[in-house]
Amino acid sequence: MPLTNVQTRDVEALLHPYTPLHKLRETGPLVLDHGEGVFVYDTQGKRYIEGMSGLWCAGLGFGDKELIEAAREQLDRLPYYHLFGGKSIEPAIELAEKLKEIAPFEASKVFFTSSGSEANDTQVKLAWYYNNARGRPEKKKIISRQKAYHGVTIVSASLTGLPNNHRDFDLPVDRILHTDCPHYYRFGEPGETEEEFTARTVRSLKELIAREGPETIAAFIAEPIMGAGGVIVPPAGYFEAVQAVLAEHDILFIADEVITGFGRTGNWWGSETFGIAPDTVSVAKQLTSAYAPLGAVMISEELYQAFVEESAKIGVFGHGFTYGGHPLGCALGVKAIEIYQSRDILSRVRALAPQFQERLERLRDHPLVGEVRFKGLVGGVELVADKTTKRPFAANHGVGGICAKHLENHGAILRAIGDTIALCPPMIITSDELSQLFDSLEKALDDTEATVT
Ligand code: PLP
């Protein structure tokens, strides 16, 4: 089909993130125009159920009047100010207080960024700064995991454990290490039980620490559920065992709650769902339900005290972003948390989770489906060429992308991560809408099967 006018303008003007650029010139983008509830509409007026909350972020859906009003009020009152050099604004103070109240650990202070990448980049800088302040300049390496996703700035992309984020970008930078991905279905060996797999994965972490020298390792970073690596839910006991290893060696646990925060797994935090006691936490995305860009890092009193002492020694704390703690983002963050509480979003997620699980489990019988994974209202469906051997499709086959395209034809938007179809619907979705989403997914899987076999 020839490109429409708006599609032509797009390909002539935009460099798109996470897109096969050569193909886009032929297909053109899907241009979205407006949204309401869990639906978005393209420029031709076609409606799609948005099963990914955009990029795992618009947890309260589209067109929420309370959020829009909060944004309008803040823009009227003070559209911009910052937190540099002793200035402040009340929305940032209020949001920091709210985050401290609900944090999954004894949070002392909140540092605002504009994104999840900046939050994780900040985490690494803070870990380095902390260990310099504490007189341990050699304790600087950060352990991440293969298939992790922590963002795309130079250091956060280095933390990310996905080949496309490293290849030809000259990454990862040094001092960033990657340990095994805890995905039993993909990396479990024949005959190995899930418990044995977990033990082996954690043993491998232990060996990495021993090889590098525990005195050189500052922190371990993990998403409670790996999102952009393919919605990988950790095996039982994994985080418990990991934390025991870290505790032996005085290694900080950085929880990247950018996807799992604010109710997604049925608790405020993925850390609660998986028994993680983090030392520090990164958030973004659902922090404002994506109505404005905002990220944050929550830190303990111990880190804060070290920073205060260092500041007294060397002067200003030399880190901060122009838009970190932007009034619009903070006002929206305050309102989003109020809505999560007033509309009891956690109970909503818990109430819908069994239906979400049941519809996912039903897909197990589909000829293309190798594994389904889920927790709360986030899930993944991994497509394979051979169910028995778990053989994946050849990478250049693009079967995930084919399925995502069929989904669009059936009025739904989900995200293909390689050959895993990710689901992360707005947490305000109704039971009927959830059924509609899965009906579209079933049809798209059948169409995909017909296309690829
Ligand atoms: N951390 C996690 C777990 C994420 O899923 C993402 C984005 O998808 C990020 C960090 C990076 O956030 P941003 O795209 O806002 O920089």
Observed structural traits:
453 residues; alpha/beta; adenosylmethionine-8-amino-7-oxononanoate transaminase activity
Structure report:
- With 453 residues, the chain is α/β, with parallel strands linked by helices.
- The chain contains 17 helices and 15 strands.
- The protein has helices at residues 5-13, 21-27, 53-56, 65-77, 90-102, 116-133, 154-159, 163-166, 184-187, 194-212, 238-248, 270-273, 301-314, 327-342, 345-362, 399-409, 431-452; strands at 32-36, 39-42, 47-50, 109-113, 141-145, 176-179, 217-222, 252-256, 280-283, 295-299, 369-375, 378-383, 412-413, 415-417, 420-423.
- The strands form 3 sheets. It has a 7-stranded mixed beta sheet, with helices on both faces. It has a 4-stranded mixed beta sheet with strand order 1-2-3-13.
- A hairpin with a 2-residue loop joins β14 and β15.
- α10 runs parallel beside α11 (238-248).
- The radius of gyration is 22 Å and the shape is globular.
- The protein starts with a helix and ends with a helix.
- The mean pLDDT is 97.
